Amino acid sequence: MPGIKPGMTKSYVEGxxxxxxxxxxxxxxxxxxLFNALTETAAAQAANYPFCTIEPNVGAxxxxxxxxxxxxxxxxxxxxxxxxxxxxxxxxxxxxxSKGEGLGNQFLAxxxxxxxxxxxxxxxxxxxxxxxxxxxxxxADIETIETELMLADLESLEKRVDNLTKKAKGGDKDSKExxxxxxxxxxxxxxxxxxxxxxxxxxxERAFRxxxxxxxxxxxxxxxxxxxAAANGNGFSQAVFDHAKKEGAxxxxxxxxxxxxxxxxxxxxxxxxxxxLELEEAGLDRLIRAGYELLHLITYFTVGPKEARAWxxxxxxxxxxxxxxxxxxxxxxxxxxxxxxxxxxxxxxxxSGARDAGKLRLEGKEYVVADGDVMHFRFNN
Length: 381
What we know:
By secondary structure, this protein is of the alpha/beta class.
């Protein structure tokens, strides 16, 4: 079930860069160590997977998924191509970034382009590494960064009010709707709350995204702890977890120091190293998965003798749009999707077993793809 017509050239299957997660944090919180560990992991993975090389501050990392190995084993695929998440190392933020302090403007431009923010928070004490504010206070650090993002949003929205008001008075319906959204967002920001908390109707979602607000991005808090706290966290990270829970965000504990060591090890060495630290998996794997969940992403698979491949889509995506992730022509000429649930594919030992057992379904344009679906698309050229 290759999901792609036989004989297709590789350039025809457009690998897409997927979803971007921006890594932010104050100076000296371990952000660069963490990003370097991610890129080293990507470099190590590149030996096994075909990855694109992108700018120095961007690293694309495979999303760990044991299901892909299982599928390729059953289909005897020659190659495994995981889906990936892109991390962007965003220039260190300082107080006053919204006013252009430090690399402020660059920071704000970079952050506009990401789908979510991974906010690295210092949750370790180390007299050799100074903290910009002189003390370890994770919640205060979070507030510093959040405030800068909200100040930049306030400024950007206030600049638009006059123009939108004029157009709305002139009877422009779109401007009237946008002005209402802008005014509600401004009220929220002035109350000290990030734009992501703005209550909005589904039909307003597109217009809201068009505002390009920095504080509207979903947030993943990354608690960087000392090595001894990598398994269970510490008091600092607990405070961040409580904060995340209150605002419906996600948090993970990670030791950037451990991750940079793990990144240089072979797969076998890595397993041994993690065992000695009593860790079930690398923190980066947890981080990647948490980013995936935060963005409401799911995976479907295409499987055949040539390759077993994972594709990323947003939860709720219908079959034609899911096909479009492989190639736009698949979406345009979509006829139907031959679909097997992952568990059925594994239990019945592949496509022919699933077909014989009546577990291969023909799904049409309205089918909402489920996580783990193994799919083959039929389309008109």
